[in-house]
Amino acid sequence: MVQESPAPRDVDANVERVRVLLGERPGVDIAVFPELFLTGYQLDRLGGLAMGLDAAAISAIRRVSAEFQTAFVGGYLERGDDGAVYNSMLVIDSAGSIAGNYRKTHLFGTEGSVFGAGDRLACVDVGTVRIGPMICFDLEIAEVARALAFQNPDVFIGIAANMAPFHGDHLVASCARALDNRTPLIYVNRVGSESGFEFVGGSRVVGSDGQILEDFGCRRRVAVVEVPLRRDTPSDVDYLRHLRPELYRDHDEPR
């Protein structure tokens, strides 16, 4: 789990940082970096930053993952085939293959006027581990994690560029999403300043009972942590089994 500040608009420097960190910890199963780590949290002049999955930077990350046999999860600015720019999560397996690419579905603040919104919620298989991907504001929308939970993830992974004054929002949301779905959650946020925002860290591991197992605080930190994967949930507290959808459908839509 990497709680750091990327170099704004310097993709080469950020790719090199990935290489260094993975090289220092060869054999780690999955390395998780924050939202938009490869490009920085940028909201303007995106033409030269957004990249497709065939970009040189993506190829470099794939080589690094294969070299150190470590899967990569992290954020970048994606240029879609439709010409739109997406706030995306790249997932590369330990063999260097692209396992998944998730586009943030719920955009926060001015992001809605800058990025395209993703239209798909899908788990990603990384080796033997199935992850439920979320990006920042997605965690605050309970239905996102619930939709992923029905796909039987072993763990949720949420990457973020969460800023002041919203530390408490994500603290509550990350614990709630884990407990709601009895699924452990890895949350990796960044620190530092960029684009007029102060990012608040607070990366953590939350168990399937909603309890915090590891908390990074608000300073720069990189650490290897053991994460318990989802196991059979006792039926009394398996909320997915207790759902009664017939009760939830007939209410008016919010205005």
Automatic annotation (TrEMBL):
InterPro entries: Aliph_Amidase/BUP, C-N_Hydrolase, C-N_Hydrolase_sf. One of its GO terms (molecular function) is hydrolase activity, acting on carbon-nitrogen (but not peptide) bonds, in linear amides. Residues 1-229 form the CN hydrolase domain. Coiled coil: none annotated. Keywords: Hydrolase. The keyword Hydrolase applies. The keyword Transmembrane helix does not apply. This is CN hydrolase domain-containing protein. It comes from Mycobacterium saskatchewanense. The lineage of its organism: Bacteria, Bacillati, Actinomycetota, Actinomycetes, Mycobacteriales.
